TrEMBL record:
Pathway: Pyrimidine metabolism; UMP biosynthesis via salvage pathway; UMP from uracil: step 1/1. It catalyses: UMP + diphosphate = 5-phospho-alpha-D-ribose 1-diphosphate + uracil. Its cofactor is Mg(2+). The gene is upp. It comes from Fluctibacter halophilus. Catalyzes the conversion of uracil and 5-phospho-alpha-D-ribose 1-diphosphate (PRPP) to UMP and diphosphate. This is Uracil phosphoribosyltransferase.
Length: 209
């Protein structure tokens, strides 16, 4: 797996605000969405374009660039991935959405899958997974397994914060996947939470703390 740590002042500033204990759900959601937007800008840098002819403002035909092919399906991982979805879709509004639901068992830290509705032509699309946190990596590995079983060949992921332990686990399981992260933190605590981290992103986004 290639990890692209997008080191940008806007991202550093917004991730700093996300880390604060008192950040409200409203502010957390807005910031998660904005960081999702900025990561999408980077992750779509290599999309291919093709020249097409249109009528320009003078009435003469001109050639413009258009994104080529079947493009992208965005894959938010329930619940917390929904907090980044608006920001992602602002830049790629025509993307199809493939929702997957997984939660992490708090005792075993193993992912439990409970829902998936993946687009039928996922074999012809790039999957762009969105989830705020990459901790042990179990949830991401299970999601990539699921997408590959359904025929997906090109997979990328966007994360607000990743732990070195999770990056190592996903690199070993799925070396062909590229992820874009706004921050790489120090480590996991004994409950599998990222330090310094953001806390429980799903609870913060949905106000269920
Ligand atoms: O890398 P891992 O150790 O698997 O942990 C990461 C997962 O944990 C969080 O979800 P959570 O299980 O809290 O579900 P939620 O989004 O419904 O709160 C997070 O949004 C990731 O999906
Ligand atoms: O730090 C963490 C780890 C997993 N899930 C979260 O929401 N936060
Ligand atoms: Mg959670």
């Amino acid at each position: 797996m290639t990890v692209k740590h997008i080191d940008h002042p806007l991202l550093r500033h917004k991730v700093g605000l996300l880390r604060a204990k008192g950040t409200s759900s409203k502010d957390f959601r807005e910031l998660a969405s904005e960081v999702g937007n900025l990561l999408t800008y980077e992750a779509t840098r290599d999309l291919q374009t093709e020249k097409v002819s249109i009528e320009g403002w003078t009435g003469e035909p001109i050639k413009i660039d258009k994104i080529k092919g079947k493009k992208i399906t965005v894959v938010p991982i329930l619940r917390a991935g929904l907090g980044m979805l608006d920001g992602v879709l602002q830049l790629i509004p025509n993307a199809k959405i493939s929702v997957v639901g997984l939660y992490r068992n708090e005792q075993t830290l193993q992912p439990v899958a409970y829902f998936d509705k993946v687009v039928k032509d996922v074999d012809q699309r790039t999957a762009l997974i969105v989830d705020p946190m990459l901790a042990t990596g179990g949830t991401l590995i299970a999601t990539i397994d699921l997408l590959k079983q359904k025929g997906c060949k090109r997979i990328m992921g966007l994360f607000l914060v990743a732990a070195p332990e999770g990056i190592a686990a996903v690199t070993e399981a799925h070396p062909d996947v590229d992820i874009y992260v706004a921050a790489i933190d120090e480590r996991l605590n004994d409950k599998g939470y990222i330090l310094p981290g953001l806390g429980d992103a799903g609870d913060k986004i949905f106000g269920t703390r």
